[in-house]
Design brief:
The complex is a heterodimer of chains A (about 400) and B (about 425). With about 400 residues, chain A is α/β, with parallel strands linked by helices. Chain A has 12 helices and 16 strands. The two termini of chain A are about 15 Å apart. Chain B is α/β, with parallel strands linked by helices and about 425 residues long. In chain B, about 35% of the residues lie in helices and about 20% in strands. Chain B is built from 14 helices and 16 strands. In chain B, a hairpin with a 2-residue loop joins strand 1 and strand 2. Chain B is globular. The two termini of chain B are about 25 Å apart. The chains are: A alpha/beta (about 400), B alpha/beta (about 425). The interface between A and B is large, with 88 and 86 residues.
Amino acid sequence: MTRAVVTGIGIASPNGLGPTAYWRATLHGEAAIKPITRFDSANYWAKIAGEVPGFEAGRHLQGRLLPQTDHMTRLTLVGTDWALRGAGVQPNDIPDTDIAVITAATAGGYEFGQRELQKLWHQGPEYVSAYQSFAWFYAVNTGQISIRHGTRGPGAVVVSEQAGGIDSIGHARRQLRKGVKLALTGGMDSSLCPWAWVAHQASGSLSRNNNPRRAYLPFDRDASGYVCGEGGAIMVLETPESAAERPGTRVYGEIVGYASTFDSRMPSREPGLKRAAELALRDAGMDASEIDVVFADAAGIPELDKAEAEAIKGIFGPFGVPVTAPKTMTGRLFAGGGSLDVASAILSIYWSAIPPTVNVENPVPEYEIDLVMNEARHGKVKAALVLGRGKGGFNSAMVVREYR
Amino acid sequence: MSRRAVITGVGVVAPGGIGTKAYWKLLSEGRTATRIITHFDASPYRSRMAGEADFDPVREGLTPQEIRRLDRAAQFAVVAGREALADSGIEFDQLDPGRIGVSLGTAVGCTTSLEREFIVGSDRGKYWEVDQSYAVPHLYDYFTPSSMATELAWTVGAEGPVSVVSTGCTSGLDSVGYAAELIMEGSADVVVTGGTEAPLSPITVVCFDVIRASSTRNDDPTTACRPFDKTRDGLVLGEGCAIIVLEELEHARARGAHIYGEVAGFASRCNAYHMTGLHPEGIEMSDAINIALKQARSDATDVGYINAHGSGTKQNDLHETAAFKRSLGAHAYKTPVSGFKSMIGHSLGAIGSLEIVGSLLAFEEGLIPPTANLHEPDPECDLDYVPLVAREAKVNTVLTVGSGFGGFQSAMVLKKVEGAGR
């Protein structure tokens, strides 16, 4: 079976731009959830988020791209540039038809869309941007990446709420198995504008606690919902043969297992997260004992935390494996969250350290999970399991391993 | 033994009638169902026409709760999904739910509902700070289209891989291609797939207005979409849904299912050219066709019918005509080509699935639906576009293609399966 290795990682996270800055901040437990600055949140009950600071799109992208892109597309394009650069891929290194682009989306370019909706309804149809037709739709990032880098292989966009970041990487691996050499994959997401905010508030999943240190507390007895963030990760995924054509290419790690499942609406049925994890392990041909860390979905919603803890305990036994949720530092990144977790898992392997879960002080004892709290744990990490869930019933699991 | 993905059930909501029978009647008679938009007052807009479905959710059996909660596109998916399930004859409650997946295509998701709620919350765009007190409880379901996959998964009881595939106007082809991949790789035995779209709201109409992609033949809406005709002046929007039950071949055979056909080959390409434009040479669509044919172990000369994208823009007509010639060579000139958008409009992320279903029915009935409104062929489009009237033909291999904003080009090869029952 064709193997899939990660050779480039582009990260835009509330606590760091680029894999180095992100990893340093994440290992040190630097939380970046703060009062919202991107819009006036005074009239909304949720007032905090993880915003990507210091991102000036105009420094990275040509001016002509700015009027036609939402913030999340700009993050994606810059993240893709970084991933390709890190992987040492130059144009013409790889035939353009051998490169796939597979991204995840949740709500498209929502801020762009709000602006155009406002123009339409307040000023009139003639004021709507000619770019609205594509700047807000879910497929935009794949299309823009393809144009920017001249890739003419397969393209796709997967939407499975917050599980999508993992699913996109799973689908990218599928494309490698179908014959492409390299895939640009993952997700970067942002929906920090008033029109998105009322939707987030309506989801019933946001924490009503506006203290950045007390709002998003997965597995804690005070869990009260989550906090939104923006950003994510775009990765270069390729076959080892393709990577070997560029001598000196750094291989961060390998994607060895993936599966996705769905939760039945019937309460009598068991939630599908455990099954996704088991299927991903089976796909990897690995035993649970070979997993050194679990990057949890960490919903921060008591019943979902409980279900996840039960899934982890069911596979690894009580306190059977270190569990961590670095997303406690950034908030949940929607289509970007799963891919950033996969990137974190890969960096964990590459740098032999498990980043901590922050702010959690009182994990629910009955969960019986070994939550990595407050401080990173240093030591060899050979393989990691990444879990992700999306509202509506989506479950995804990915196994990453050191490349040998 | 490699696993093969076959279609064993179909369900349709389309302009011109609800259900697969009504849909086929429209296609086979070459009638059009495009008209002046009735869903809202379209008089301020440049293009005021669409293919609208006469869809009454009460008559289609949706509960008041479902009608309140679900965007129209999700309502379509549930109704078409139920028809497809019944048509397949699968006893879904007898299957392992973990082996059932869902892959649903949509280009613009729940935009119609989002726009409706935006108007209220922003007081018709007066305020950037949308008022939270007007937010409906299910606003978040409109926010992300994966909620529609959830709804369809609930309808069929799926607990396997579930997702939305959203690649603009190729979503309806790509979602089915994705579903076929899930079956072939062994991740599922049955995948309920297809595409749904109910995009007829001002913001979507304006999107196409401002880039002048849509037709302005507002005085003659029933003939406005004219692919391959030299008088064409753009696309006509549409709405609709097709849901397809895709099943692993041996699984279908074991229960003696009727098999419409096989998804024998599928490929998608990015054109890396322009977010809304198409290069006239059609290289990437041709690449997709070649790969899909290769995967289907078919030669170009096996193709008995091409279901075109046929959106009604000159750019598209030249693009796909070039692609067909590039891939099929001389055989392109002998192959009937037709476009259903001339009859039902362009329902964005749904149309690819509606075209798949229409193509499967062409197998069943031995009849190729025509390209409607094609009276004055464009001399630059010199293939056999089956103008106006359906044509009898025994077809065993169909090629269906799509192009979408973002540069997506997709091709699927559908083959008739021998010994397929009924």
